[in-house]
Each structure stands twice: as C-alpha cells, then as structure tokens.
Amino acid sequence: MDPRQHIVVVEDEAVQRQMLADYLARQNFRVTGLADGAALRRLVERELPALVMLDVGLPGEDGFALARWLREKSRRVGIIMVTAAGDTVDRVVGLESGADDYIAKPFEPRELLARVKSVLRRATGEPAAGPRVRIGRWVLDLERRVLVDPDDGGEERLAASEFDLLKIFAENPNRPLMRDWLLEVTAHREADAFDRAIDLRITRLRRKVEIDPAHPEALRTVRGVGYMFVPPKD
Q1: Using CA atoms, how far apart are residues 187 and 96, in angstroms rounded to an integer?
Q2: Domains and CATH numbers, the chain
C-alpha cells in the first residue's frame, strides 16, 4: 500500500474536485476524489483515510451529516469542511459537527496546504508544540492548563476560554490566524461571542503573558487578518 498519507476530497463539482486532487497529489499526498457521501461511506469501510475534505453542499447527505458520521467512526481522522465564502453559519455548524477546521471558497492553495498540514499533525498525534510552550514571559503547560513562571515556578490559572485560545496559538506558531476563525472555534465556551470578543480576549491575554502589553511580541496583530503567535527565538 502507498505509504503516503491518504486524503479524500468529497466534492460534487467535478472540475473543482479534480483541481483539489491534482494540487494535493503534487504535495506528495495520496488523494482520492469522490462525488458524494455514499462513495465516501464505501471507501471508509475499506480504509480509514488520514484526512477528509468535505464540501458542505453535497447532494443527498450533506457535509455536516458526513462529518458527524466520520467523527463517530474515529477521533483520529482529520476533517476539513469546505464552505461558501462568508457563510459563518456553515462554518460554526461544521465545527460543531466534529470538523477540525474549515476553509472558505475561493481559497489560496497555500492556505489550503497549511490547514491540511496542521490538521494532519493533530490527527496523527504529532505535536506542533511540546507539552510546555514559552509564550511571552510565561510557559504554557498544555497538560495542566496553567501558565508557569520560568524563574520561580509560580503558576497563573487560566479560564477555559483563555487556555483554548493559547492552545490554538501554540499549535499554530508563526501562522496568521483569522479573527473570525478564532472566534468561531472558541465561541462555544464564551457568553460574549460577538464580533469584538476575540479582540477583548487577546487584550486580556496580553496583560498576562507579554512583558510589555502595549508592545506585544508574542501575540502579535496581523493587520487586516487577525493575530499570530511568535515564539521566542532563544
């Protein structure tokens, strides 16, 4: 069997499906293109792929139902939902259905590849960061869900939403993350899930982790996009 990681693209539009399959194949993945959920179910009975890209608007069984079915089959299979541009409801429902990530049409190939690689790291258990990650003047303990002072070992407890956000940054270092996406993947824990909620949470986190919150070095703003975690160089 081909040892390369197997990605399945489920897309009913033939041209789009072939373009995605060709691009991912050029990145040295083993790719299968399928037109609908029935074909996906047949394939999964034979072999569980590493990652499935699911178009939301499939004929018959839609992408949400298939994501729930896949997640019941395995916690390890990676799932990326492909949604219509700007459709926030689809994105939120997709994540609630068990998807690991989403990408909106039309998308840049490099963004798609970055998301595929990130999901595959999580799905296969390959850590993008170790159990402890230096963030600003603190060390984030991913197992105990606390901030640790590297000098004296003192600890700072985190709210669940604060830890969720820092964990996402730790798993995606040096990668600009969209504000809307950060809001969607953490909103289920927060009562203040409105448009500026992420900005407020970032402000609170900067007060905790940055040496100088007014000039952040760890949690940086990416103008027009969102935020990016930059690990220290030392």
Answers
A1: 11
A2: 6-123 (3.40.50.2300), 132-229 (1.10.10.10)
C-alpha dihedral (187, 189, 194, 195), degrees to nearest 10: -40
Q: Cα torsion at 39, 40, 42, 45 (round to 10°)?
A: 170
| C-alpha torsion sign, points 123, 72, 32, 46 | positive
- Give the predicted TM-score (pTM) of the model: 0.56
What is the CA angle 80-199-116, rounded to 5? 15
Q: What is the DSSP letter of 225?
A: T
Residues near 189 by beta carbon (within 8 Å), at least 6 away in sequence: 160, 161, 164
- Parallel/antiparallel/unpaired status of strands 101-104 and 132-135: unpaired
CB 170 within 8 A of CB 136: no
| Torsion angles phi and psi, residue 40, rounded to 5 | -65, -45
Residues 92-149: tens digit of each pLDDT: 666 667 788 888 888 888 888 888 988 887 666 554 445 889 999 999 998 888 899 8
Note the pLDDT tens digit of each residue in 55-70. Answer: 988 988 888 899 999 9
